[in-house]
Design goal:
The structure is a single chain. The chain is mainly α and about 110 residues long. It has seven helices and two strands, in the order ααααααββα. It has helices at about 1-15, 15-20, 25-30, 30-45, 50-65, 70-75, 85-105, and strands at about 75, 80. A two-stranded antiparallel ribbon has the order 1-2. The chain is extended. It starts with a helix and ends with a helix.
């Protein structure tokens, strides 16, 4: 357990979770220090015809951007879950998970 405690302590000391929460998507996607390697990565994946990974990357970016919307901020009000708002998120998450499972296990190349 000492190894895991050291990793958790390191994550807390560097405040990685807080930094991820405070990222500005508009600023990130206009920053050339991020965009040049990102475009090179996508270009390399297109060259290798690795469309599954490209789809997963775009799903992760979409989920990350969607998690910062006002809708997601209002899922919990006064320490109570708003069931009418959570159900579409759960359904959408299940659809995305089904798509990822299909991409990796459902079809063969």
């Amino acid at each position: 357990m000492g190894f895991v405690d050291k990793i958790v302590g390191f994550i807390h000391s560097t405040q990685v979770l807080q930094q991820v929460k405070e990222v500005d998507p508009a600023g990130l996607f206009t920053n050339p220090w991020f965009m040049v390697p990102f475009i090179c990565l996508i270009g390399y994946m297109l060259y290798k015809q690795d469309f599954r990974e490209i789809i997963v990357i775009f799903i992760l970016i979409g989920v990350w951007i969607a998690s910062g919307t006002e809708y997601m901020a209002t899922l919990i009000v006064d320490d109570e879950i708003q069931l009418a708002k959570v159900l579409p998120v759960v359904f959408g998450s299940a659809c995305i998970l089904g798509l990822v499972i299909y991409l990796y296990f459902g079809k063969s190349d």
